[in-house]
Write a structure and sequence with these properties.
The chain is of the alpha/beta class and 461 residues long. The protein has helices at residues 3-6, 25-35, 44-58, 79-100, 145-148, 153-174, 180-193, 201-217, 222-225, 238-243, 274-280, 296-306, 326-339, 367-384, 429-446, 457-460, and strands at residues 63-68, 104-109, 122-125, 128-131, 229-234, 245-247, 254-256, 261-264, 286-290, 315-319, 345-348, 355-357, 363-365, 390-394. Strand 1 (63-68), helix 4 and strand 2 form a beta-alpha-beta unit. Helix 2 packs parallel to helix 6 and helix 7 runs antiparallel to helix 8 (201-217).
């Protein structure tokens, strides 16, 4: 490990929340030393490109769509499952592109989202206490002593699964699967088959007009055939993240090459903690989750620590307030951060503040609550004259029954039918598209969209 990366080891002297209790620290050191010699999963130049696009979000000139699994699992790294997730995100992005008439940056919660923070370190069933499931990168979901014992060899499985997923994504996004005309046909089929499809007819007609305009502008048909797609995950397991940190030969600066965009969660954003210290030392775009307990002083201190140069695109705040609190708590936060001169991208996570337990014991979320938090997010930014920069959604391309509501309504009695999540409930493919259309209508109704221009084409498609 060379000297610039060693300088990032300062996080090891600080308290690190939500780390596994590894039974054999020597085994962890051996695994991370091996990982440190592996090739990067993403490249510094790609991280720089995403940072420049997020700068457009911070300036109000673009929109971020970030979505994917709550917790990826190793057995879900199949071509069909990755393709279904990517297809859903591409469809949602196309809807936002047409409705907002601005570039849409597409970022997956993918190829690295294999670890999860937990509210309790242990889980008890029928009087038996075992370590909590912390994601496939740490231990297994099965409630047995063997499965729940943290195993550092899983960190290498995480790397391999992430590499396989990124390879699939790169193949799909450059090989014609993401052709804009094809994505538009998928959306037309969804509208035709949706029980509430008539609500979306006007938007799909607008998409026809926009598609024709883009086709007329495109000098090269290849502009329709590929998209830029970025990978993100919560930078939770610091031993893994540090092992994947590399110094860029172009600039001499360190990048965490485990993913393009890294975020710090609500449980690990302590200003004097290891996660913030680590993130401050790498050049990736960084996001921080801010929940209802967040204060303006904390937000401003996070900016000072993570974005001291006030560089647009470096820092995003992902707010997760809950539909019943967003209108009361978000305004002061946005107002104070904006008046400080910082240019952060404001992203809405309408999922995590709206979770509840159904009578069946399943964790779930109401589609109506999710949509209402987005409405509140928009209302706050409209009142302040700031830019509501995007959405952060937990979703899957599969037809699961984990969240209730939506156009093709799922009821609480249906939750047990196809509840597949390893952790928190996700919107299924139909609910995700319902949400995209509903949110697109909200954005479009705020003001007349800007006229499409060829200069927006590469990032928009």
């Amino acid at each position: 490990m060379n000297a610039p990366v060693k300088a990032l080891e300062t996080w090891r002297r600080l308290p690190a929340a939500q780390q596994p209790t590894w039974p054999d620290p020597a085994a962890v050191r051996a695994v991370t030393a091996e990982l440190a010699a592996y090739p990067p999963l993403v490249f510094a130049g790609e991280c720089d490109e995403l940072r420049s696009r997020l700068a457009a979000v911070a300036r109000g000139k673009a929109f971020l769509l970030q979505g994917g699994d709550c917790a990826e699992t190793f057995n879900a790294v199949t071509a069909d499952q990755v393709k279904a997730k990517l297809k859903t995100l591409l469809q949602m992005a196309a809807i936002f592109t047409y409705a907002l008439a601005v570039p849409v940056i597409k970022v997956g919660r993918i190829a690295g989202q294999y670890s999860k923070p937990r509210s309790k370190p242990v889980e008890t069933r029928h009087g038996v206490e075992l370590p909590a499931y912390r994601g496939d990168a740490v231990n297994g979901l099965e409630f047995t002593s063997q499965a729940r014992t943290p195993d550092p060899e899983r960190l290498k499985q995480m790397y391999r699964a992430s590499a396989a997923t990124l390879n699939l994504i790169r193949a799909f996004t450059t090989g014609g699967f993401a052709d804009l005309r094809r994505v538009h046909e998928w959306n037309q089929d969804f509208v035709a088959q949706s029980p509430v499809g008539k609500r979306y007819a006007r938007l799909t007609q607008g998409a026809d007009d926009a598609l024709g305009f883009l086709a007329a502008c495109a000098a090269d048909p290849a502009e329709f055939r590929s998209v830029d797609f970025f990978a993100s995950h919560e930078a939770l397991l610091l031993d893994y993240e540090a092992a994947l940190t590399r110094v860029d030969a172009r600039t001499g600066l360190p990048y965490d090459t485990s993913g393009h965009l890294l975020w710090i969660g609500e449980r690990t954003r302590q200003l004097d903690g290891a996660h913030v210290e680590f993130a401050a030392g790498v050049r990736n775009p960084i996001a921080v989750k801010l929940g209802p307990a967040s204060t303006t002083d904390e937000a401003l201190a996070l900016i000072d620590k993570l974005d001291p140069g006030r560089e647009p695109g470096r820092l995003s705040f992902i707010t997760r307030m809950g539909c019943d609190k967003v209108r009361d708590l978000l305004p002061t936060l946005v107002e104070k951060v904006t008046s400080s001169g910082a240019q952060v991208a404001w992203i809405c996570d309408p999922m995590h503040g709206n979770t509840f337990n159904a009578a069946s014991g399943h964790k779930t979320r109401r589609f109506g609550d999710i949509l209402d938090e987005v409405k509140g997010f928009l209302e706050v930014h409209d009142a302040l004259g700031t830019h509501p920069g995007g959405l952060h959604i937990e979703l899957t391309g599969d037809n699961v029954t984990e969240c209730v509501g939506g156009g093709d309504e799922i009821f609480t009695a249906d939750l047990h039918r196809r509840y597949k999540s390893a952790c928190d409930p996700r919107l299924n493919c139909y609910q995700s598209l319902d949400l995209a259309f509903e949110v697109a209508k909200l954005y479009r109704d705020r003001a007349a969209p800007a006229k499409l221009h060829k200069s927006a084409l590469p990032a928009a498609v």
